[in-house]
Structures are given as C-alpha cells and as structure tokens.
Amino acid sequence: MGTQAVVSVTVGGRTAAKVVCGCNGMNAGRLAEAVRKLKVIPSSGEFFEMARDCDLGCGDCLVAMDAEMIVGGGGGLDPDDLDGGRYRATFDDPRFNPRWARGTADHVEVVDFPIPVEPAEDLAALAEEMG
Ligand SMILES: [Zn+2]
Fold this sequence. Notes:
Layout: E1 5-11, E2 14-21, H1 28-38, H2 44-53, E3 63-66, E4 70-72, H3 79-82, H4 86-89, E5 107-113, H5 120-129
Parallel strand pairs: 1-5
Antiparallel strand pairs: 1-2, 2-3, 3-4
The chain binds zinc ion.
The site of zinc ion has 7 residues, from loops.
C-alpha cells in the first residue's frame, strides 16, 4: 500500500527523533502509542526497531533518525536525499515528510514530551501515602 507516514518524538516542540516510511503508514498510530508508553526518547536504532515491530513501512522505505544518526533506507532511496540532504535539512520540522518536496504524509503522528520530566514530586507523595 502506498501510504506514507511520519512519526516524530519532540521535546518541548523540538524534534528529537523521527521515523519516515512510504508504505504501511496506517500503523503510525501504533508506533506513537508505543513511544508514549516508553516515556523516553528512543535513539534512531531503537526507533527503527520499534517501527518494525509495529509493521510500519518495509525494509526498502523505513528510515529512522535522531539528531546524529540516520538508520535504514534499504534500497531505492538516494543517499544524497538521506545524508546531508532533505531528510537532515527538514529534521527540525516534526511533521515534514522528507520523501518528497511537498512534505506531506497520509499519516502524521507527533509525540511531545514536556521538558523537564519530573516524576520526583509524584514519587514523594506516593511514598508519604504509603507511610
Ligand atoms: Zn515500504
């Protein structure tokens, strides 16, 4: 199926990790849900594996990236588009699909984590409650 998807993890609105695919994009919601449960920013390698587990994209089109690394791309993608090209240039826009210049995708999911994540207060309250 030719459904494209972009799934991004942002911290305070800033892109921290992004997955892009050209098929099976309807599973983007599953990946977004998995990241929400994870509660931490996945590395590009981890994000790639999670996307595979959610049946997002395929070996040819699935790409995961974070601020440093780009993983995947299989065959069929121009490495110039990946490295130093549009994928990297548009990374900061969490909703942009770098597979083509228009930047749109059928399925777009953005999981935003607030900064900072502070579980300490809740834990203290819980400890008090439990005596
Ligand atoms: Zn594919």
